[in-house]
Amino acid sequence: MQKNNSADCIIFDEQAEYCHYVASINRGQDLRYYLETLGCQMNEADSEQISGMLMQMGYSQTQDIMKADIIVFNTCCVRENAEFKLYGHIGELKTIKQANKDLIIVICGCMMQQTHVVEKIKKSYKFVDIVFGTHNRHELPRLLYKRISEKKKIYEVWENSKGIAENVPIERKSRITAFVPITYGCDNFCSYCIVPYVRGREKSRDPKMIKKDIMKLASEGIKEITLLGQNVNSYSYEMDFSELLHYISDIPYIDRIRFMTSHPKDLSDNLIKAMKDIPKMCSHIHLPLQSGSTNVLKQMNRKYSKDDYLVLINKIKQSIEDITISTDIIVGFPGETEEEFEETLDVYRKAGFDFAYTFIYSKRNGTPAANRQDQISDDIKNKRFAKLITLVNEMTLKSNINDESKIMQVLVEGRSRTNDTMMTGRTRGNKIVNFKCEADCTGSLIDVKIIKGHTWHLEGEMI
Ligand code: SAH
Ligand code: SF4
Ligand code: F3S
Which spans in 249-323 are helix H? Predict the structure, then answer.
């Protein structure tokens, strides 16, 4: 094994005591929390812990911000628009707070790991009560207790992680599928990306804790788990990622296992083999390409070339039947020429991606790429982005049409939001399928025949 990034374990006991104190202060009151989550699945998973802790402290959830006694914003800073969005939101909170002086406003998450952001909140948004970061999320009970008992503003952000908090209560959004974090942080330092600075060094969770979590999920009726991390395939804690998959694969009642995200440089033959050998592994891999130009990839510090990537894709496709491959792409990285952008389109076609998340490069202060003088103009970035989107949509539709008349296993997640007579779920390849079904079959694994491929989903019928 090349490295071991195993994390120390922080046990939640002390915080559980604070949960208890806050719950006794809150006893007899009908208190509500409103929680908004920006950003990626890691933040979603963190928010489920925040919900869990708030529930233990006597708050129940409301979707109506005006009815809340505590408002929590879990923030993201991966692109500039995520930050703008938050400042817009915090501005609106001022009037709500004026109407309810007892309201507690909490801002946490990735954005708070940046000193200039906390300074701005202290200076311009004085009505914010509690600020904490990604590394001390589990301390919310103590911070809330302190806020309630001492009535002072609290700004506590840890610079580094001291370990991974275990036994934190979790209130999950879904009763069918669940996120299970296996690594936190990132050591890759892609030159455009802020994540390593706000999430800290990569740390792997104790496999025994992971297994314990999944066994609990199975006992609660969860059918599908997604192992989460910025780069899951560099997991290392007495075992590597492929070994971890084997280690958790025999847990009864869990029908499907997914993971995200994978970095192409760490995708081993052992992992491909594990995906092939373990029947529960879903036939989907999310493998961010970022750029199709070897030169741009080098400047992005991605550590693979265009050819390495294409060879890897071919290997995966040859090894795993019916695999769905999705990716992330950035356009307009500093210095990207028209030819280099065309190479991205070329690799996109050659790789035959099934779907993609596409981003316009966003300058993040503190990252190496932000200091470059050869930033691309918004006009060019927008034009390239529009061209990429056209190709992505065209190929996604093609991939979906290609599924027509196939019979696919769908894990039903609930009723379609737009049509009451339709159920919605996902294939093993992670495509959304809507199909007609009068009875509520939420939580079932059902074979569905695909009758039409649309750009954003598949339409099917029960067989
Ligand atoms: N760890 C994951 C994802 C991290 S963020 C990975 O490496 O795949 C999700 C995506 O946001 C990235 O894959 C990248 O495509 C995009 N992204 C990150 N920083 C960005 C930036 N500064 N501008 C535009 N997109 C960015
Ligand atoms: Fe960011 Fe790169 Fe780490 Fe992904 S692998 S989180 S893009 S630094
Ligand atoms: Fe955003 Fe933090 Fe995720 S910056 S993308 S929420 S790791």
Answer: 269-277, 294-299, 306-319
